[in-house]
Fold this sequence. Notes:
Elements: E1 2-8, E2 10-12, E3 18-22, H1 28-38, E4 45-51, E5 54-63, E6 66-71, H2 73-79, E7 86-93
Antiparallel strand pairs: 1-7, 2-3, 3-6, 4-5, 4-7, 5-6
Amino acid sequence: MKSEFDAEIWYWKGPAPFYFVNLPEQDGADLRELAKEVSYGWGMIPVHARLGDTAWETSLFPREGRYALPLKAEVREAEGVGDGDSAHFEVTVAVRSGRWV
């Protein structure tokens, strides 16, 4: 599954602070189905993500019926984005065997 979307970056101040973007609501049902096959625990879904010229591997976090994509500091710095900025993202879900679907 591949998703392309525009989203606003938000900051979570939890015990381990981090920046995220929410995937579109319409992707939620498809992702929940895929999670049954690809999740490695707690509903996390491994993905390959891209923002501008920067690509990275991470996992989607289930959050309030949706999924959130974490943004590493290196990604935010390379692309010059931060809290409250909107940007275009590409996300491709991975399967456990390591091949992308």
